[in-house]
Specification:
The structure is a homodimer of 437-residue chains.
Chain A: E1 4-13, E2 33-41, E3 47-53, H1 58-68, H2 77-82, H3 84-93, H4 95-98, H5 105-126, H6 130-135, H7 139-144, H8 157-168, H9 171-181, E4 183-191, H10 197-209, E5 214-218, H11 223-237, E6 242-246, H12 253-263, E7 268-272, H13 280-290, E8 294-297, H14 304-312, E9 318-319, H15 329-342, H16 355-370, E10 379-381, E11 395-396, E12 399-400, H17 414-419, H18 426-429, H19 433-436
Parallel strand pairs in A: 4-5, 4-10, 5-6, 6-7, 7-8, 8-9
Antiparallel strand pairs in A: 1-2, 2-3, 4-12, 11-12
Helix pairs in contact in A: 1-5, 3-5, 9-16, 10-11, 12-13, 14-15
């Protein structure tokens, strides 16, 4: 009987602000970071997970992961992997730690790392990638993953079972199709605010040449600049490529509507995070006003309760899950089921550090066993920092190729763990690029 | 020119779970705790603040406070106290730290401690209690405290200025009345779930004898038990005393409605936290169904954006601010202005450790300079842990007496700081009561 012997953490940070990769209207100089965790065991595989941050405060997430550790160390691996929903609910339900959210912010980011690490462990023990592990569960096993509290006014367990049973007969066929054709992606690589016009145009053209049918531009800092950049991008990609825009929460309601009116002539496909991720009613008002432009949000939506309301209020056209923000796979299963109930496509947030690697499992599970469709569904892709992962995502012809390695593909390379540890790794302890010039 | 020389933190925990003080349906065994902070200066007074938690994870809040420290140490005291809104917005707006919320959870709890400590410093330098400091500001100075982002669809700065100007002429008279008569309180002391029937009845009778006109009972664990306890309480206090009930987020919508139907015969005054504090739409549905029982929430509402929506959706009859959860005085000023705009009474959450001491300043400011009324307004009171404060609240005849000491009355006694420090203070490092039996 294997036992979890330790919850090891590490504060990993990448000095991305030095190149303005990842720059947007709210986040001008992020240092992409991961609060990384390994569930060590005395026998068999280990579980790897992380949560994504953009620099300062990554240590606070590490402290939060460690606050859950006493509830995990000493547990039987078999008990954890055979009841992953119970594992997540026990951690999330600890009454003293719950007070610090509840179910939001730093504590949910920490749970994202831990719950995903438990799924990594489960996948590795089963010898299956997590998308497959999930897709082979029975409808009852899938609904057992979910914390049903606060959902019944929108989705009951019985309704979820019906959705899952309806998708059961097509699972084998869709799995085969997924393995052959992959899952559609879109790319944000061209669109960072800090990039020059030349870089924007070149990367947009490359994206089309690489087979992407959708790109995304950051907007929201200066409307005249956005009009100019959007015109450049539209000219670069032509009329048939979708261009989404992303304001990263920069606006109030009226400002969002006015700004999108200015961009309308360039046919934006969706406006992402027009305002606060907490503001269900504002998203509903914006959606009403900017049709036919779609409204998308979710990368900062804190939990299933906010997603439930976004759907109940008809506030979004596109639901963007994040692999780490909402307490991990189990909470995301609840959100996928809610989206299926309301018929809203899920297009995950990714990029950052390792978010592509982890979130692909959720979309692939959604396709095989929940929504059963790829219509209007794309996973975000950013060509950045993948080299630090043991099993980086594989993108060809603008599509994610299904990972075949066991686990959740969150494992960071050992040399990266050493080099990018904060503040003592050589990348941080050594001289900065400016200092060496 | 005085400078802030250090941000000192301390993890304070009180072993309240040993007596079941504070026990409710979601929090069976809290250890009331404070992540405590002192803004040290090289000249003149210091600023004291804290955020309240219920035990485990208090260290995560300490880590979060420390994450903000580099933005504070070395600043001019004069600069901080002359632009408290700017101070709060700079901390809250740090893009890398904002990612960890945004504006919620652990990071907002930490900001609650720090921003309140800055107000303590400002009050002490001005020689005024914070309620008075705020009440003597001009309408323009008060609106400068607020982060206006995300509010304009419900309240503009101009509308806030109108509200504040309308209240200006009555300030002197209301200040005099406040100093003479105090501010009404209600008590939760009798109502903890872990208390015996005898203790419940005795404490309820004492509350009436002490001049309180409202008490509160915890409910939500077992409906038959709640019916029985509610009957006992109603018999103890008679028909004219208001009995509020508090479910501490225990229910889904339909369950909340059914449960309140069972309790209706005992005339509950309000139902507090019937469901998730994130669930604006569920509160609106519950309110519609349980009239004339009022719906109250807010102690876990994460920020002004959630409060704004609760008001926009007509989801609450009673708005319950918390002194520490929402990034401190400045965010609470925004919430008081929103409540005044919508005409909803503010009845603060208090109890815990020191929450009564701090939140009284906000209600008194609201009375003098914002809403201008005491109608249906009461501050929660729990007779617990006040002895640890240098300037504990003074309650007589069921009313808070206005504090006259400069600052925000958050300062903990030096001997308490030593005895209750976690994990090394003698209360924690010594043998537990069970071990000495």
């Amino acid at each position: 009987m294997a036992t979890i012997t330790a919850v090891e953490t590490r504060d990993l940070r990448f000095p991305t602000s030095r190149e303005l990769d990842g720059s947007d209207a709210m986040n001008p100089d992020p240092d992409y970071s991961a609060a990384y965790v390994v569930l060590r065991t005395d026998e068999g595989p280990e579980g790897h997970g992380f949560t994504f941050t953009i620099g300062r405060g990554n240590d606070v997430c590490v402290a939060a992961i460690e606050a859950y550790a006493p509830m995990i160390v000493g547990r039987s691996v078999e008990e954890v992997v055979s009841d992953l929903g119970g594992f997540a609910r026990r951690l999330g339900g600890d009454s003293q730690l719950r007070w610090l959210g509840p179910e939001k912010g730093v504590m949910n980011l920490a749970l994202g790392a831990l719950v995903n690490a438990a799924f990594d462990l489960a996948g590795k023990r089963a010898g299956k990638p997590v998308w497959q592990l999930l897709s082979e569960m029975t409808p009852e096993q899938i609904t057992d993953l979910v914390d049903w509290r606060y959902l019944s006014d929108a989705l009951t367990r019985e309704e979820a079972l019906e959705i899952l049973r309806a998708a059961e007969s097509g699972r084998a066929e869709r799995t085969a199709r997924l393995l052959e054709h992959g899952y559609p992606a879109y790319t944000t690589t061209p669109g960072w605010l800090g990039y020059s016009d030349e870089r924007l145009v070149r990367l947009a053209e490359e994206a089309v040449a690489d087979g992407f049918t959708q790109i995304k531009l950051k907007v929201g800092a200066d409307v005249e600049e956005d009009v100019r950049r959007m015109a450049l991008a539209r000219e670069a990609v032509g009329p048939d490529i979708r261009i989404a825009v992303d304001a990263n929460q920069r606006w109030d309601t009226a400002e969002a509507i006015a700004w999108m009116n200015r961009l309308a002539e360039f046919d934006p496909y969706w406006i992402e995070e027009p305002t606060s991720p907490d503001d269900v009613l504002a998203h509903a008002a914006i959606r009403e006003a900017v049709r036919p432009v779609r409204v998308a949000t979710g990368e900062h939506a804190q939990n299933r309760i906010i997603f439930k309301q976004l759907l109940q209020a008809g506030a979004i056209d596109v639901l963007q899950i994040d692999a780490c923000r909402v307490a991990g796979v189990t909470e995301n299963v609840a959100i996928l089921l809610l989206a299926a109930k309301f018929g809203v496509p899920v297009c995950p947030h990714a990029g950052g550090v390792g978010l592509c690697e982890v979130v692909q499992h959720l979309s692939m599970f959604d396709y095989v066993a929940v929504s059963g469709t790829l219509d209007d569904r794309v996973i975000e892709y950013v060509d950045h920092l993948h080299e630090h992962f043991v099993e980086p995502v594989r993108i060809t012809d603008g599509r994610y190729r299904a990972p075949l390695e066991p686990g959740i593909t969150a494992e960071v390379r050992p040399d990266t763990l050493l080099r990018f540890s904060y503040p003592d790794g050589p990348v941080w302890a050594g001289p900065t690029p400016e200092e060496t010039q």
